[in-house]
């Protein structure tokens, strides 16, 4: 059977409440893969066009599908079933997948009662997601505002240029440089040795325009993902608050925000050696391992590394992540001021959310899976009581 026809038949069964759990999961999976939003829009319009203006359906149908999938992920905890737990897991999926029924079919009721499309909390003024924004600061204090459309700079032979070849500055910058992103910004830089660094929001990376001597040393505040060019004779060293990472050639993520009170190093591949000031401890990480340095010493555990580097590929990914930590990521990416008073410390989030969504979509998803409500005034966010 043609896939398009099959989807239309499943959608018709879905609307008429005659669809089973397996068919519903197939239908939802179709709308979560590929570029199928247009077909979802057409199907929704065919059923609801007489009641809901098409422009609102076009805007909100994808959001409804997103919210449904986020809630399903949270309810099943992103866990695959074991043989022993298969029955209970299927029960959880069956219950969770009903969310998609209620959300997509009730789009008519949502939009009819909320024609302005306000799907989230009180006093919401929607805020766009972060973009490619950064500044480059020379050791002389000169500040260069980087072009957000270019996304990446390359430092080579003292010359800083964008990836397309356009120069950031006409003269050579043979000095120490600092790439700095604000809240709501991110950027990428290729260093003079070929190492590539993705810098997350509210972060800074200090590095020489040209590496010299017996090592390649950079300093990081905030979060960055590194793909280090291999050179056994010139170790690559990342200095953060209270920690040093010694690298030969590897890919890893470092989270060293000052307001986190810890440094988290996650190794994707290769090998790194960690050290800290005033201590002889020097553990090595292997792929899939993570080190947390928070005062007493290094704590090392096996993790799903993809969760901690997803931001580089435009995703928030949470697995048993405390809500307070989730909100700190949201705060940095959307350039917010979050009041953490009253936010429960014991709530954990399981979800995958695109970082290109508007703030209202992200907060509404968090509200749906936590039963909390957020109050937004300007760029200030607090928990509603």
UniProtKB/TrEMBL annotation:
InterPro entries: FecR, FecR_C, Ferrdict_sens_TM
Keyword set, alphabetical order: Membrane, Transmembrane, Transmembrane helix
Name of the protein: FecR family protein
Keyword Transmembrane attributed: yes
Domain FecR protein: 178-273
Organism domain of life: Bacteria
Coiled coil: none
MF terms (GO), sorted A to Z: sigma factor antagonist activity
Residue ranges occupied by any Protein FecR C-terminal domain in the UniProt entry: 316-381
Keyword set includes DNA-binding: no
UniProt-listed Pfam families: FecR, FecR_C
Transmembrane regions: 89-111
């Amino acid at each position: 059977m043609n896939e398009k026809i099959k989807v239309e038949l499943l959608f018709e069964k879905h609307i008429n409440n005659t669809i089973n759990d397996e068919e519903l999961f197939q239908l939802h999976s179709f709308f979560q893969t590929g570029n199928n939003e247009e077909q979802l829009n057409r199907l929704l319009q065919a059923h609801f066009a007489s009641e809901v203006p098409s422009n609102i359906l076009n805007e909100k149908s994808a959001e409804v599908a997103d919210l449904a999938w986020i809630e399903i992920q949270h309810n099943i905890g992103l866990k695959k079933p074991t043989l022993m737990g298969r029955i209970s897991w299927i029960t959880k999926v069956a219950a969770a997948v009903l969310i998609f029924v209620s959300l997509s079919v009730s789009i008519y009721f949502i939009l009819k009662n909320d024609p302005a499309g306000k799907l989230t909390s009180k006093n919401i003024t929607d805020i766009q997601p972060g973009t490619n924004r950064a500044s480059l600061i020379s050791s002389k204090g000169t500040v260069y505002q980087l072009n957000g459309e270019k996304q990446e700079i390359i430092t080579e032979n003292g010359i800083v240029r964008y990836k397309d070849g356009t120069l950031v500055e006409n003269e050579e910058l043979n000095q120490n440089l600092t790439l700095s992103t604000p809240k709501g910004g991110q950027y990428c830089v290729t260093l003079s040795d070929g190492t590539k660094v993705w810098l997350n929001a509210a972060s800074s990376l200090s590095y020489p325009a040209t590496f010299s001597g017996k090592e390649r040393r950079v300093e990081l505040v905030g979060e960055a993902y590194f793909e280090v060019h291999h050179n056994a004779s010139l170790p690559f060293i990342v200095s953060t608050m209270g920690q040093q990472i010694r690298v030969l050639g590897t890919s890893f993520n470092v989270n060293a925000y000052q307001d986190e009170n810890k440094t988290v190093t996650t190794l994707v591949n290769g090998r790194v050696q960690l050290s800290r000031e005033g201590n002889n401890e020097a553990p090595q990480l292997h792929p899939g391992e993570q080190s947390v340095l928070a005062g007493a010493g290094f704590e090392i555990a096996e993790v799903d590394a993809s969760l901690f580097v997803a931001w580089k590929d435009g995703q928030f990914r949470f697995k048993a992540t405390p809500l307070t930590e989730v909100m700190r990521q949201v705060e940095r990416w959307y350039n917010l001021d979050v009041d953490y008073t009253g936010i429960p410390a014991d709530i954990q989030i399981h979800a995958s959310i695109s970082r290109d969504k508007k703030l209202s979509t992200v907060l509404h998803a968090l509200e749906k899976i936590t039963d909390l409500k957020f109050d937004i005034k300007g760029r200030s966010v607090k928990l509603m009581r």
